[in-house]
Write a structure and sequence with these properties.
The protein has 574 residues and is α+β, with helices and mostly antiparallel strands. Helix content is 41%, strand content 11%. Strands 1, 2, 3, 4, 10, 11 and 12 form a seven-stranded mixed beta sheet that branches. The chain is globular, with a radius of gyration of 24 Å.
């Protein structure tokens, strides 16, 4: 989704002159010749057939001006310029595709939901809002839409089963509410060349008694961070860890984007823990949020959560550059590419294109990277069957306040930019993969050696353990903004990790209580539970075959474990 390009720039692409009406197959063929060629999972005949369907379906809307919006990342910039123009040329539907900051997208969405005024005809917003959209019932169920009002403008070749992210955009009622447009994961990043250096390997084995490799758990990550910090490589002192700590909204993403799940917060369950998710929010059997604090059976301030915050603080202080403490997400992002960082627990793969540019200290002369992506290590509270990291899934959303004809035209555009005709090319531009057929395309097999393990990860069985925020979160915009302030207090030292998470869970429950009192989410809105002790809630969870909230583990350190990266990748392909 995010995060790399958080400018407030608005790219307004107003296409086609007012009097022009030359849309049709000639324009489609010109687009296919110039832009797509064989960069598609469809052959040329199938590409033309899909374009003909768009031409025919769009006829009732030719000449219409529509407005859509997304955040500013490379994928959406490509849509806003190249694909929006092509769509307009081919269909006659004029498109303004605005690019704004992610927070601004959510703000516009909230305003339209609250006012009923049609600001945009479609939004690309995070699937993190799935619980919000389902409970407020302001977004159209795409399942209903495709079967009824939108049936005549739903591509028969859409192939929903080919999208890898639809389980994240499906609500507990079984309906699809959002269509994935771009997707990327948060993975472990490390210097493959340094990890395979014979002296580094020998020195690490001599000091720690096991092999240097991809850390499976946080104990090994910590040892590796200690080993590399202060070590001299190529004439430079290097660091074993990188992060950021400034009290800023981006600090909230760093934690709601599944840091706690990596530590072992919440329950087992994919794509999200149930009944307690990775935010520590618990729901009942009717999917009603019942609490966030351990006193109500939640886990936001439980031992696993506090452990996660403590490790974040300890590692930043001991193993990251001193400047990291004062950095935001966007400021810290480029640092590993500068060549002085050995590993990073938490890197969005949306940065991939920027990490493989020729001439960088982390890229070989032949264009292959000196680094690799791998699955993230897990903390001491983590158990098999839990999610292990975050995937961002920016997804097309149609609000009920948008008139049907405008929603239909916008739905055609949404399907065009995610269609099999264009998806492979779009994925090569932005590296935000949404279709299984694209992931398996030969062009990505050919390009994989220059993408540092990105394609291997997306082709691996490990992928299912990475997921966005789930449906336990009843109002993402209201709750997400609480996190950066609470974590910021811990990062600055104003509060201990326990105090910060106690404060956060209490503030989350205040929001849940207001929603319950207002009744705006009906019988799927919050219904707060009675308060009990941590021990009572843990016993209740265990009796029901669940985990959260877990009791404190002493000591909070397990036996360090690593795995050879090449062996790991080989096991995936086998």
């Amino acid at each position: 989704m995010r995060r790399q390009f958080l400018t407030s720039t608005t790219a307004l692409v107003l296409l086609l002159g007012a009097g022009r009406a030359y849309a049709g197959m000639d324009e489609a063929k010109a687009f296919l010749d110039a832009e797509i060629k064989d960069m598609s999972t469809l052959d040329r005949a199938a590409q033309e057939a899909e374009m003909q369907w768009f031409i025919d379906a769009a006829k009732p809307f030719a000449g219409m001006d529509i407005k859509v919006v997304s955040e500013t990342i490379t994928t959406h910039s490509y849509e806003s310029t190249t694909l929006a123009k092509a769509f307009a040329d081919i269909t006659g539907i004029k498109v303004t595709h605005d690019l704004i900051g992610e927070g601004d997208v959510v703000e516009k969405l909230q305003t339209q939901m609250q006012s009923g005024e049609n600001i945009y005809d479609a939004y690309v917003n995070d699937s993190d809002l799935i619980g919000t959209h389902w409970r407020y019932q302001q977004a159209r169920s795409l399942t209903d839409w495709m079967a009824n009002e939108g049936k005549d403008v739903t591509n028969p070749n859409l192939d929903l089963a080919d999208f890898i992210g639809t389980k994240f955009t499906t609500a507990p009622d079984g309906d699809l509410y959002q269509l994935p447009d771009q997707q990327f994961a948060n993975l472990y990043w490390f210097r493959y060349d340094w990890f395979n250096d014979e002296k580094n390997k020998a020195d690490f084995k001599a000091k720690y008694g096991y092999d240097l490799g991809v850390p499976v758990n946080w104990s090994a990550y910590e040892d590796i961070a200690e080993f590399f910090t202060g070590r001299e490589i190529d004439g430079k002192k290097v660091y074993g860890h990188m992060d950021y700590g400034k009290k800023d909204p981006s600090l909230g993403w760093r934690f709601t984007d599944a840091w706690l799940s990596m530590a072992g917060n919440g329950d087992k369950g994919l794509p999200n823990g149930l009944p307690v998710d990775e935010w520590g929010i618990k729901v009942d059997e009717k999917s009603r949020p019942v609490g966030s604090c351990v006193a109500r059976g939640g886990d936001t301030n439980g031992p696993a959560s506090v452990y996660a915050i403590q490790k974040y603080l300890d590692w930043m202080k001991a193993y990251a550059p001193a400047a990291a403490q004062g950095m935001t997400f966007s400021e810290s992002g480029p640092v590993p590419a500068q060549g002085e960082i050995a590993q990073q627990m938490f890197m969005y793969t949306a940065f991939t294109a920027n990490m493989v540019e020729d001439g960088l200290p982390v890229v070989n002369e032949d264009g292959t990277p000196k680094w690799r992506f791998a699955p993230s290590p897990h903390g001491v509270y983590w158990k098999d069957g839990m999610k292990l990291g975050y995937q961002d899934v920016g997804s097309w959303t149609l609000l009920k306040s948008t008139p049907d004809d405008r929603a239909k035209a916008a739905w055609l555009y949404a399907q065009f930019v995610t269609s099999k005709t264009v998806d492979v090319k779009k994925a090569h531009v932005g590296l935000t993969l949404i279709r299984e057929s694209t992931i398996q395309h030969k062009s990505f097999t050919d390009r994989a050696p220059k993408l540092g393990g990105l394609i291997e990860f997306y082709r691996s069985p490990a992928r299912v353990q990475w997921s966005p925020t789930g449906t336990n979160v009843p109002d993402y915009p209201k709750l997400a903004q609480l996190w950066w302030q609470a974590i910021g207090d811990a990062s600055s030292g104003a509060k201990t990790p326990q105090e910060a998470m106690d404060s956060l869970c209490a503030e989350q429950e205040e929001v849940l209580e207001r929603l319950e009192r207002a009744g705006v989410q009906g019988d799927i809105g919050p219904k707060l539970a009675e308060e009990k002790t941590l021990e009572e809630w843990n016993a209740d969870a265990v009796a029901k075959g669940n985990l959260a909230p877990q009791l404190k583990i002493e000591p909070e350190k397990d036996k360090p474990q690593t795995i050879n990266y090449d062996e790991l990748v080989k096991s995936w392909s086998n």
